[in-house]
Structures are given as structure tokens and as C-alpha cells.
Amino acid sequence: MPYGTLADLESAFPVGGMTMDQQFDPQKLPVPRTLRFEGMAEKVLYVARPGLRALPSGTLTVCAFAGLQIWTLTILLWAIWWPKPLGFADYVFSISATSILFGLVAGVMWLLLRKYPGFALAIARAPFISLTVTDRRVVWTLPWQAAPLMEIGRDRVVAGLLGVTDDKGHGSAALVLIPGDPSADIDGNIHFDRLPNVARFIAAFA
Description:
PH-domain like; alpha+beta; 7 helices
């Protein structure tokens, strides 16, 4: 007696009223729950654009020191060019002295930038940095740059610590990261100075 083909068996003994191909159609299987979760939009919990408050601590001191140096340079230039040079020798002296002064200033700036290459860049872009906290990550971005400056997943954040605040709600805070996180400082934290509505920032990590 011939056994027949698989199609003959399916048609003769359907399972639950369906053939095997109909029962195990991949397109009719339920969508995995993980795919539905990944399709959900992030929930933004906090956004801050501190502006000038984002400048690192001590920036005003550095600017004051630089202002004194500029004032001293201005006095020296005034002494060199006043009264106005009258002859060729006076012009040679004034131009030579001015060139030496500007050369010294440029040399000092070059040495500082070479020793601290990221300091000037950090000060220049600090007022434009935007800090965003969502239910999945913490992101630092710049308006003219598509890729974020830095991004930390919420699973790397242990807790948020509130610092001193003023009457307007601006204050300092810190994020405690997991041990050994490469983005943390020597104490395992990331510090923030003069954040607006800092209490809401901490509440985003509750």
C-alpha cells in the first residue's frame, strides 16, 4: 500500500482544521514584545540650556587675569607709540617693540593651548551645550552638531545628588555612576554647576 505524500497526509489529517503550512505561517505569528518596546518613543524628563552659567568654575578669575594682562599690554603700546614717532629710527623702534610684545603674547598663548588643548575649546562651547535627560539616557548636545558630545545610558547612573541651590532654583548637582565608569571623575561622579531647575534634574533620576 503506498504511503502517499506529505500533502496527502495534511489534507487527510488537518490539525485544528488547518494544514501544517497554514498553522505555522510565520507572518501570522505574534510580534515579539521586545520589538514593540523598541518602537516606543523616549520620554524627555529634563532639558537644560544653561548658557553662560555652564562656564566652568574659575572662568571669571581667568578672564579677570587675562584682562589685567591686556590692560598692561595696552599701557606698554601707548608708551611705545606716544608721542608719535617723528623719524625713521623712531618708527623702527616702535614697530620692533610692538612686534616683540605681540610675539611674546602669541608665544604664551601657544604654550598654554599646547599644555591644555581642550580648555579653550571647552570654555568656547560651554554656553551652547544642551543637557537632556530621558527615561533611557543622558545626552549632551550642540546645536550645530548632529552627533552628541557625550551620551550615558540610564543603567550607568546609580543616583543623583542635589547640591546648593539659590532662590531661583539654580544650583549644583552630581550624578553617581557605576564603579569603574570611564565617564566619571576620580570619585565616580559627574558634577554640574549652576543648572536651572536643578531639583527637577535630580527628580528625573528618582
